[in-house]
Prior knowledge:
The chain is an alpha/beta fold.
Amino acid sequence: MPKNGLWLILSFLVIGLLLTGCLELRAQAQTEPINVIVTIPPQAFLVESIGGKRTKVTSMIPEDGSPHTSSLTPEKLKKIRGADIYFRVGTPLPFEENNLEVFREENPELIVVNTSRGAELKALDQHYGKTKVDRADDEKKSIDNHVWLSVSSLEIMAENVFDALSSLDPSSKEYFRKNLDELLKKISVTRDKLNGILGAFVGRNFLVYHPAWGYFGDEFKLHQVAVQEKRDKPGARRVREIANFAKEHGLHKIITSSQFSPTTAKMVANTFGGSVAKINPLERDILKELVKLAREIAEGYRES
Length: 304
Ligand SMILES: [Zn+2]
């Protein structure tokens, strides 16, 4: 074989190897997951459902944490440094609002999305059936931030997650779309389930310790009555008031959130012969948790 021919073959080999290398690199870039931060675990559920294998999700607040007291830690800052997108919810939490500048310094390219954009935010006293018995409503002007605890909000949030992920990675849009459709189907099945459980109780009251379920109540025309007074433990007068209210309205259960100690709720429930049911508003699998909540509320109307 002439010398030139050998060189030619060698050159092709080298070029071929380089090309394969390039393609591999590109494939790697495409499969590199999008680093997503969410404020609370139910958002992680939405993002993972839609983003699937294209996303890697971290929640700033864990399932057993509390949005009311959460603060910024070095570990959280580290996550923010490596993130592509940050999904917050409702109005920014204090640790988010106070540190937005720090976020920007750590990661100038970070995209911040309001997951609940388009869902109507209400004050506590704007929820279904509010009356004088609602002591927690003293904070009239403060917005009730538990907006993710409603089926229609979750639908809006899912759409917003889809939009944001699609603009970040347009090549995966069809994949995201397919996942969104499946998620919306799941949410719709949940709505039917909830209507089936609660449909017979329209217009009734339900007792909760911390007022997290106003948006949920609105959806099924149920009036949330909170035992807590101004985010604090109820006083003796409030306990008597709740006991009388429970007897008058045939209520046998208090819904408590996992973030609050159930001791006070149990004590209050004892005054009217009722019980407590623990539901976690930060549960990752929030659809399942809402069904659990509906069952507990329905059970609370039955004589024990
Ligand atoms: Zn809360």
